TrEMBL record:
Pfam families xrefs: Gal_mutarotas_2, Glyco_hydro_31_2nd, Glyco_hydro_31_3rd
Name listed for the protein in its UniProt record: TIM-barrel domain-containing protein
Top-level taxon of the source organism: Bacteria
Similarity section: Belongs to the glycosyl hydrolase 31 family.
Keywords associated with the record: Glycosidase, Hydrolase
Stretch forming the signal peptide: none
Gene3D superfamilies in the cross-refs: Glycosidases (3.20.20.80), glycosyl hydrolase (family 31) (2.60.40.1760), Golgi alpha-mannosidase II (2.60.40.1180)
Sequence intervals crossing the membrane: none
Glycoside hydrolase family 31 TIM barrel domain residues: 218-558
All residue ranges annotated as the Glycosyl hydrolase family 31 C-terminal domain in the record: 567-652
PANTHER family linked to this entry: HYDROLASE, PUTATIVE (AFU_ORTHOLOGUE AFUA_1G03140)-RELATED, MALTASE-GLUCOAMYLASE
Domain spans labelled Glycoside hydrolase family 31 N-terminal: 19-177
Amino acid sequence: MSYSIRAGGLERHTADEVLRIEPWGPHAVRVRAASGTVDPAAPGALDSLPPSSQAELSVADDGSARLVNGRLAVEASANGRLRFLHADSGRELLADKSPYPHHVGPRVHAAGGRTEQHFEAYDGERLHGLGQHLHGRLDQKGCVIDLVQLNTTAAIPFLHSSRGYGLLWNNPATGRVELGADTTRWTADGGGRVDYWITAGDTPAQIIDAYTLATGRPPLLPEWASGFWQSKLRYRTQDELLAVAREYKERGLPLSVIVCDYFHWPNMGDWRFEENEWPDPAAMVEELTGLGVKLAVSVWPTVEPGSDTFDELRASGHLVQDAAGGLLTFPWPSRSAEEPMRPMAYYDATHPDARAALWQRLNDNYRSLGVTSFWLDACEPDLTPDVAERAVYAAGPAAEVANLYPVLHTRAVADGLRAAGDDRPLSLVRSAWAGSQKYGALLWSGDIRPTFDSLMEQIRAGLNVAMSGIPWWNTDIGGFSGGHPDDPAYRELLIRWFQYGTFTPVLRLHGNRQPHDPDFCTEATGGPNEVWSYGEEAYGILRNHLSLRERLRPYLHALSEDAHHTGAPPMRPLFFDFPDDQHAWDIDDQFMFGPDLLVAPVYQAGTRTRQVYLPSGTRWLDPATGKVLDGGTTLDADAPLERIPVFVREGAGVASVLR
């Protein structure tokens, strides 16, 4: 069957498939295929962009077709195979897998709504993005990545290729992507459709620009968010939290945000302060505001029977259903003496009225007090895989739409804040999907280990998040699950992690320090986790880095403008700024903080020097020595415990803040 030109795109109809290819923003196309009709209302991450008026479409007599949109050209063969080329050079960027005898073809429409898309694989191709995964790799060629949300995993199905393209798998179904040596295969467990978007770019910056134009630009980072965030598991009372904020003030230490963690509520789903432990939250917020400190509060999507909202949400159909019948539930700690762990339900973030109901509670119980910063914890939502698979959302069953949950949960807060006049929404979130950036998602890497190996994993994970369109990212400095403040070995780790965190988009100290309550219950709390908790030597180093972070904040605000207008992430791999330097593509343990700062974290115990590569195309100032060094060189840089190697692009004004 030949192609036809319909509604500004190419269409091919056969007995087995409808295939549609259309321009979707500058230098990009969207491809959709289904065994029946292509559903224009199917959920995904793409904002509505009209087809480019510059696109050229043609159909040939031999049954093939061609579409050219800016830098991207698509050649569609008569048998339905697609090739994506750079329009100027004709170089192949990506192509459907070549057919061979008895092969099912590049697109598979299987029983139960499962679909597959098979692409060619290329030797030497480097693949980045796909969200946050703790496999410790920047280049993910050879990996199999599950497209499922988990604690420490944020599945964002956007792939950046060193060949000069970016590809969004525009399907919120659970599934996987296999980045094999012979094939790249995307799989969706449900939904019955193939839906992807591809763009061509001569630089990584052009690719990220096109992707965030299509899926949404991030809002500007609020000015308060660029400073230091103090957190621990957990400040149990109003008096305890205020005492910490006051001590920061008394010591003359900068503090921008202090975090009120979970179980500050009476019941899961009340979404308000418990009255005995937090007797006057309005006065607390007022005092913190006077100290120049923002309060962020934890919000979980879990709803306990007997809470303020349970009956209302259940009656309105705003709770997630179970495919086995009734409500989907999972056991969580409760203040109930008779049932300290009890099954709890989940509000349905995929239902717009449920999101409105959540925001109404947050507005009435927190925003009315002056709280506008929310920590959307456990927003995968946090379930074991066997339970997660049974979820039935308003938008559809889990196999078809599960990845929508975290992005729409973040949207609930962003929509509410924007309606209230706040055009810079920012929510700390543990999970994200494509498009989360436009709702002010500040992703963090979940409940990670307190080890040097874990710190190494964070460096690569954060850079892949950056290449997934999420500019605001951070970690629990020191790792989450453990670490004793009196342990000299842990103190070294904490120092190195804090130095790294100083040059990440958000600087946040958090963790469940020892000694801590071993039980997961409503009374649980961890050990001390303030900058003065780790001894005098560590305190002096952390204090100096707090001062450095303050001096860096104007630079970070300028990077926020870049992210808002072009999607450029503040923290990014070296190849983002130096795509013509082939060696820069090999470096996975350094990063650029904006265009002018090169950061080389220390992630091994006892290390006091480390190898650093300086990209070519410019010269580099070493602020520690005042020397200017040539690019395109590798050196052994000093890394005393007091600092990590940081270099400045020659002539950059930010050099003055590092001296």
